Amino acid sequence: MKIRCGGVPEHFNYPWHVAIEQGYFSAEGIEFEWIDYKGGTGAMCQDLRADIIDIATLLTEGAITDIANGNPSTIDSVYVSSPLIWGIHTGAQSQHSNPDTPGLIKYAVSRMGSGSHLMALVDRIQRGLSLTDASWELIQNLDGARVSLQKNDSDYFLWEKNMTAPYVYNGELRRIGECPTPWPSVVITITKKASARIGNLSGMYRALEKAIHFIQQLPDPVQTIASVYDLKIEDAKDWYSRIEWAINTPLTEKDFDTTCHALVEAGILKEKPDYTHICKA
């Protein structure tokens, strides 16, 4: 059985790589292919639709939005139950220093409807700022955002704070605030076509559980994460202390409702979709 899976090249996806390296997928009879997506949830949703990948680890809000808009996929499980901490970043020479300050702000976003787009809106809502004062600069990925902020083509960029830490430390970017997701941050999404072909995903989940246990039993998992993802020890330690993986765990209706409320309030969805249309029953 072959499974093609996509995810961003970030530390919360490390268990998939461990499962490949340790042969856990092979032991379950799975021919597993992993594809890195620097473009994030939006790029993976495109390839789920195009049948290029079968499964993806998507930001919860992005998965709900794209399925509601016609992606023939289903949220099968929560993957990371802990919130994602989004850093609010500016360029080193930016005049901006306080995200609570009202006024016109241009945000660098990977794609419209992406996590970086939605969380910019969620952050403005939580701070009581006008949504009409926000505008958008499409930059595709983190590398594009770095260029945009340095050239002052945009003002703010929201991205997972540990992944941007190297650029904060080297002085290229400044982090002026944070915005945690008020819902489980990452879900495992599978196309309906792949679900019909593969059937039960229990073997894949067993392999992932073994990989997570392997990481937790390493002599120094923090050092390993820091080395693999080029993080400072203190950042890896901070992230590892907060990460909560959840395997084969349905997205609850309560968390679904919270996410949908934010999506509707931000104008990304016109109305709340039906839970059973988006999530595995």
Automatic annotation (TrEMBL):
The keyword Heme does not apply. It holds the Pfam family PBP2_Ca3427_like. Its main location: periplasm. One of its GO terms (cellular component) is periplasmic space. Coiled coil: none annotated. It is found in: Periplasm. Keywords: Signal. Belongs to the bacterial solute-binding protein SsuA/TauA family. This is Ca3427-like PBP 2 domain-containing protein. It comes from Cytophaga hutchinsonii (strain ATCC 33406 / DSM 1761 / CIP 103989 / NBRC 15051 / NCIMB 9469 / D465).
